[in-house]
Prior knowledge:
276 residues; alpha/beta; eight-stranded mixed beta barrel; 12 helices; globular; binds ligand C2E; binds magnesium ion; EAL domain-containing protein
Amino acid sequence: xxxxxxxxxxxxxxxxxxxxxxxxxxxxxxxxxxxxxxxxxxxxxxxxxxxxxxxxxxxxxxxxxxxxxxxxxxxxxxxxxxxxxxxxxxxxxxxxxxxxxxxxxxxxxxxxxxxxxxxxxxxxxxxxxxxxxxxxxxxxxxxxxxxxxxxxxxxxxxxxxxxxxxxxxxxxxxxxxxxxxxxxxxxxxxxxxxxxxxxxxxxxxxxxxxxxxxxxxxxxxxxxxxxxxxxxxxxxxxxxxxxxxxxxxxxxxxxxxxxxxxxxxxxxxxxxxxxx
Length: 276
Ligand code: C2E
Ligand code: MG
Ligand code: MG
Ligand code: MG
């Protein structure tokens, strides 16, 4: 009533925020049954060796097919799941589904690694290493086919994260740092943790052919990665020029729409069958 009284525009403004909040509350509510109802599914995006174009691994990316709202992207629902703690349940589901699918591919002779995104809340939850161990055991999956992607934010708790990373490395699982450059960790800290891969955030790749400052920062990242002994993966490559710049400057791996969008497991399977 108040909002209406203060004019049409303000009413809409009020409404817009109200809708956003209502949608958020609905997602929060509906998540409770969404795993059981099989509303989540994974798409996979290949990560390629830039020089040869061969697929190094596939990254699992979760989607929610909501019965009323349609397909909801992770950037919308993951922050809500993190707030409510539901991310831990979802993360366990993602991990198991990625391992199940990977094992199925292995049985068909498709030997491809899978990378799984892990929220820092899931990573720091008490039993994370056990959840990983159980998923590997349950699906009889070889541990070095699994790569866990964490973000720099886990470094806010360096001691704890170091311990978890060591336990995961002992299992034989690979670790990569996602969205590198958007947080505050240093490459030398990551090197002391024996991280396997560092993924340069898309925001840097966007600027490499148009902004010489960004280009030199990316060159430095690649140089440092080389001397600290981990391979870099460039994220969000959309253009041939970007791929060429990265190859010329020694970046080993890349991912992006230029190579492939995230696609269904069936499509990944087709793509990989053609390559073998
Ligand atoms: P991310 O892990 O950094 O994944 C890369 C995102 O960039 C994906 O978006 C991918 O579809 C998109 N992308 C890849 N190449 C390009 C490109 O060339 N251009 C553009 N414009 N975009 C590109 P998506 O699938 O919407 O996922 C967004 C984020 O949601 C992910 O970023 C990750 O942080 C999170 N996420 C996705 N799946 C999971 C999951 O299973 N668990 C957790 N905890 N987070 C997830
Ligand atoms: Mg990722
Ligand atoms: Mg990323
Ligand atoms: Mg991200």
